[in-house]
């Protein structure tokens, strides 16, 4: 399984994904789930994937193949020349449908789920930064001002902090902390999510990657957030009043 979270704020986009993939208790591997492409100042696109790995890898392979053909001079639509970020989400949805149509039936015959989902984020010059969630059927939804975050994978453990903290006005500095706390809560409660993590930040209007880095288990900044959050929770718990006369 996996956990990926994306925020769409007035200040920009913040994306965080783990790298653990498991096909049973004794078959655990690491695969990157966050992928980025950019033409700095013109366009930036990021994808986060969850679900059946063969399906999502097939989509990524076809994206790269189209980009290679375009780079060789062929006139073909790609995620880096589509007319809008909305159209990018449509392209990903179309690829998802094609992968599902080609693989769902044989996978299900083997008792394997073909379900997959992809978060699409990005901005083109002259357009707004946007965040979409593409489902296995190829349909998708978009993050809004009222719900400025999207999650895929094991999302339930990391959602409470997002519900309490994140609004469209959240700063990028606050957003970095909140996605790390959301991920840390998931890591502590679900063994199918694991380090290292991949982080991407896109500032509004810049059309480039402001941050694109891997966070290892011994990263000092991440450890400070993890330990600080644990201590803060314990401190808050200690201040709660006694219940039913027990002290």
Explain what you see.
- The protein is of the alpha+beta class and 247 residues long.
- It has a single domain (3-237), classed as Glutamine Phosphoribosylpyrophosphate, subunit 1, domain 1, CATH 3.60.20.10.
- Helix content is 36%, strand content 28%.
- The strands form three sheets. A five-stranded antiparallel sheet has the order 10-1-2-11-12, covered by helices on one side. A five-stranded antiparallel sheet has the order 5-6-7-8-9, with helices on one face. A two-stranded antiparallel ribbon has the order 3-4.
- Helix 1 (53-71) packs across helix 2 (85-109), helix 3 runs antiparallel to helix 4 and helix 4 crosses helix 5.
- The N and C termini lie far apart (42 Å).
Low-confidence stretches: none
How many domains, in number, for the residues? 1
CATH superfamily: Aminohydrolase, N-terminal nucleophile (Ntn) domain
Provide the β-strand percentage band. Answer: 25-35%
Q: What's the helix count? A: 5
Shape: globular
Strand-pairing-aware structural class: alpha+beta
State the end-to-end distance.
42 Å
Largest sheet features: 5 strands, antiparallel
CATH architecture: 4-Layer Sandwich
User: Portion of residues in helices?
Assistant: 25-40%
pLDDT average, as an integer?
Answer: 95
Can you list the strand order of the major beta sheet?
Answer: 10-1-2-11-12
The CATH class designation is: Alpha Beta
Please provide the count of β strands: 12
CATH topology: Glutamine Phosphoribosylpyrophosphate, subunit 1, domain 1
Q: What is the radius of gyration computed over CA atoms, rounded to a whole number of angstroms? A: 19 Å
Helix/strand order, N-terminal first: EEEEEEHHEEEEHHEEH
């Amino acid at each position: 399984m996996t956990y990926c979270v994306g925020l769409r704020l007035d200040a920009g986009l913040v994306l965080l994904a783990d790298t653990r993939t498991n096909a049973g208790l004794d078959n655990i591997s690491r695969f990157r789930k966050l992928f980025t492409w950019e033409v700095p100042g013109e366009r930036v696109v990021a994808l986060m994937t969850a679900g059946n790995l063969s399906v999502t890898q097939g989509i990524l392979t076809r994206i790269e193949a189209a980009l290679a053909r375009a780079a060789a001079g062929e006139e073909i639509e790609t995620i880096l020349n589509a007319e809008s970020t909305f159209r990018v989400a449509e392209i990903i949805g179309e690829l998802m449908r094609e992968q599902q149509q080609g693989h769902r039936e044989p996978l299900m015959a083997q008792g394997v789920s073909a379900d997959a989902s992809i978060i699409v984020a990005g901005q083109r010059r002259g357009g707004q930064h946007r965040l979409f969630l593409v489902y296995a059927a190829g349909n998708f939804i978009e993050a809004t001002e009222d719900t400025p975050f999207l999650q895929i994978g094991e999302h339930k453990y990391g959602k409470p902090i997002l519900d309490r903290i994140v609004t469209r006005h959240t700063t990028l500095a606050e957003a970095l902390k909140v996605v790390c706390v959301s991920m840390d809560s998931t890591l502590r409660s679900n063994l199918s999510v694991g380090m290292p993590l991949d982080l991407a930040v896109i500032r509004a209007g810049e059309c480039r990657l402001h941050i694109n880095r891997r966070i290892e288990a011994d990263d000092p900044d991440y450890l400070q957030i993890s330990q600080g959050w644990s201590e803060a929770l314990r401190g808050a718990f200690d201040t709660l009043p006694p219940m039913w006369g027990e002290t």
